[in-house]
Amino acid sequence: MATKQRAASKTRVPFERYGLTDGQLVAIFRTMLLQRMLENRGFQLNRQGKIPFASASEGHEAVQAGAAMAFERGKDILVPYYRDLGLALGIGVTPYEVLLSLFARAADHSAGRQFPHHYASRRLGLHTISSVIAAQLPHAVGAAYALKQSGDGGRAVLTTFGDGATSEGEWHESLNFAAVHRLPVVFLCENNEWAISTPLDKQMGQPDIYKRAEGYGIPGIVVDGMDALTCYSAVRDALARARSGGGPSLVEAKCYRFLAHTTDDDDRAYRSREEVANRRKDDPVPRFEQLLLEYSILEGQDVEALKRGVLEEINEATDRAEAMPYPSPSHLYDGVCADRGEPWLG
Amino acid sequence: MAVVSTQSSVMNNVEAVRATLYEAMKNDDRTLILGEDVGARGNVFLITKDFINEFGPQRVIDTPIAEASIVGIAVGMAMEGLRPIAEIQFADFIYPSYNQIVGEAAKIRYRSNGEYTCPLVIRTPYGGGVRGALSHSVSVEALFYHVPGLKIVAPAFPADVKGLLNASIDDPDPVLFLEHKKTYRLIKGEVPNGHYTIPLGKANLLKEGSQLTVVSYGLYVHWALEAAISLEQEGLSVEVIDLRSIRPMDKAAILESVRKTRKLLIVHEDNKFGGIGAEISAMVAEEALFDLDAPIRRLAAPDVPAMGYAMPLEEEYMSSPGEMADAMREMVKF
Fold this sequence. Notes:
The complex is a heterodimer of chains A (346) and B (334).
Chain A: H1 2-9, H2 13-16, H3 22-47, H4 61-70, E1 77-79, H5 85-90, H6 95-103, H7 136-149, E2 157-162, H8 169-180, E3 185-191, E4 194-195, E5 198-199, H9 200-203, H10 213-216, E6 220-224, H11 228-243, E7 249-254, H12 273-280, H13 284-294, H14 300-322, E8 344-345
Parallel strand pairs in A: 1-2, 2-3, 3-7, 6-7
Antiparallel strand pairs in A: 4-5
Chain B: E1 8-12, H1 13-27, E2 31-35, H2 51-55, E3 60-62, H3 67-79, E4 83-87, H4 98-104, H5 108-111, E5 121-126, H6 141-144, E6 151-153, H7 158-170, E7 175-180, H8 183-186, E8 188-192, E9 204-207, E10 212-216, H9 219-231, E11 238-242, E12 245-247, E13 249-250, H10 251-261, E14 264-271, H11 276-288, E15 297-301, H12 311-317, H13 321-333
Parallel strand pairs in B: 2-3, 2-4, 4-5, 5-7, 6-7, 10-11, 10-14, 14-15
Antiparallel strand pairs in B: 1-8, 6-12, 9-11
Helix pairs in contact in B: 1-7, 3-4, 9-13, 10-11
């Protein structure tokens, strides 16, 4: 009811407190659409037998697009995990680069060595991604230490992980060390409730991950991970705190994984269709679309044009990436070490 | 450390580590040391004593007891332009950091196609003969030498400690630097003054001989050398090679020597199965089988979990200079 009243008055009040321009709001929405449609493309290509594998992040669009808007490109460092397609897109990885990774082409960031969605770009401040859960957290802390050591304030590290990562020892070690040294790092948990097939209640006795922050003596914040704007503002505030010497924060965004873990997983084995359908009602992409329409940030035709544009960009990138060559077999031997890394000398 | 000339100083291995780390910290602000008790305590062997006063707690970091993140945080530092030297207090405690060393540090360059690199040194004291029991005595090199992207160094002499540690610090990729703790104060030698490096992967021919090649590293280099010298009185001529680096390893030096002596004995403190000697044996069998006059032999520890705390258990596990001399004698006479 209240929403309808605001809609009728066309006020922008709900957006003003976030300090985002209309252009930024549309950019967040576009990132969400790109993530959703690109991920769909990955699954399509897999089912067509064109690529061996793709992983899923559907349901994470709001937290990732929101966090990406808070990230300052050219200054901050992103240390993500492998379910961060939207974050990567939001900080500047292009759909073409994503498709190169899906197709495992030579021009991919890893030159076709890594799984899809394991990016690395120093230009974008985007660390190389591991598939080993929580392995990236100590790297984020070390990077934050380097930022602090440089005395070059105003920069921070954003690191992301799922609920599954919070069971790892390195998760604890990283938050603890960051707290001891008050490092400029934000720990963003994308809690989608599933560690592949293991639900939260088999992962932890206390399902509110943000509450653990108190144990480290750092701020813990929980947000609706299906709401791009609250995700944006929580990450923005945490990054601002980090950049200004206020130390680390733990932000928990409660979202949901709509698809199976990857193209190789079948989630019917461990959760009901009813559960998934029920959670779909809170899908962050139509939810944000609705919000932009209600407040006339976009009109219906704008949304359609945006979707068409995104699809065209993905189609064009798909064709372009598919036409690119595989790495040559000789590339297997390159770059082990600066000096070739042969085990024998002579 | 007594100065014997203007060109060199006499020091033991622990002093050589300390002096080299000190110079590295002095010469490059990007260098920092992190590990357990490296600050106020100055490391359990006093290697970094007073460093914290000179270089400050930001560059000499007392970490929580958390080995996985000691290495993992150092990886992140290295990726962002610092030159961390991580310390694992005893090699026996390195296991929690295995993923960060093997799964992360060693693969950063490769998996990012050179976009990121990991210039990191991980130092750790290893080895027995000090009544270290099950968890202060182990050799860990065989757990790591299988790993492409990682270099492993195990010097025996103070001058090599300095030259190889400098080379490790300068190296643009991760290096595991193994310091045999029994040699820390036992082994003294002249160390050239000033900065110098010894290339990783270069062995050192310690003693020339014509009837047998003995290849070793770490503490056992000293005992093998002692045994080889004692056998001269019996008219036996044994060549001794100190590997110094385990990965990369000096194939050329091993083959050149084996082709001359036609016999090979590998001596190491680590247990035998899947150890360094296995790879050397396989390489020599592949490359020089028909140059051999006797089967290759490995003198190594038994395949039990570790040496015991009780003296008889430690002695039974380790090879003595006398046992080494016996093995050498048998091989020469084969």
